[in-house]
């Protein structure tokens, strides 16, 4: 029998949080089909929204025989969720009839339109959403003797909130809040309270390290052993971001990702591999133009189906993300059998095609984070050159210790590295430190000006 988590009777620390992490692939596929079938039957019976939507597309539950038959179901778009909440406020189709009472409300950022409200019952929050989250913190090595600081303001953003609750309620760690603390206050309290685990967006945790350095503090001396990032692409998608975090803090960096509408999708193990929560969500990677499945391991748009949650199941939800792919045949040294998730490349609209070459914003960021003369502040934009051709312009701030006389050398180095990585020329501009915006939560570095 596989032992997981921490035994309440012996206190023994086991390697895996859930048996699903090492389930044989054949059993996992059977579990996915059983849960998908149950979910579809449940929604056909309980949800007027899905019954009408599916019926209009010629689908009924009898057509679902295999996992591949999920393609008979239409996609769910975020705009449909927004419209349903306008027609039937406040939750629309995100509240199944009879579900409640609610203990937590999530809300999307609203960057692409009116924010979507996401209600959670206790069962769905702690039993499903936090189940997806706790695997990420457990795989990172966080245990009940750790002191965790989750560096974000308390908003309805669910990603870091679920990590917070997973550490406190499921792992049993001491978790230190600090929603309105300044960066200097965070640094003082990290040292004073003996924080061993730091969580936040990669942008903010890198910014926090810079604040420390600017004030004569070496972040690596503060005692942080583990860094967990979420909310935007981190080391799982941009390896050089993970490297910068580890170098700055002298800690091991881990990364997790997901959608507020569905669940935590993937997280990094101790081997640096991203693993999918395949028993909780079913992920498809499709060609953005044809909607057909790509070959295993290839890049495409991510579509996610919630296999377990019952308050607001999202079936074939179009996340709007382009991902590096999913490798089902990957054999990881950690012993987990869950598929390898190859990270995010950008949003569907963020993939820029230049003379036949697809350039991802995550790829640009990985190049910049690998150049030591570049600071963590930069931005990139898509432009039209006036002849009907797209081009990319990259603006960077150099490190503070780079003399202004050397900025043009930095510009040339960045341009050369980008050209070598993508085989296309990009405009590069070096701007003085302090010119570009500083982000404490999700960074908005890409601007489409076409």
Automatic annotation (TrEMBL):
Residues 108-304 form the AMP-dependent synthetase/ligase domain. InterPro entries: AMP-bd_C_sf (IPR045851), AMP-dep_Lig_C (IPR028154), AMP-dep_synth/lig_dom (IPR000873), ANL_N_sf (IPR042099). Pfam families: AMP-binding, AMP-binding_C_2. One of its GO terms (molecular function) is phenylacetate-CoA ligase activity. Its EC number is 6.2.1.30. It comes from the Bacteria. Keywords: Ligase. Residues 363-450 form the AMP-dependent ligase C-terminal domain. This is Phenylacetate-coenzyme A ligase.
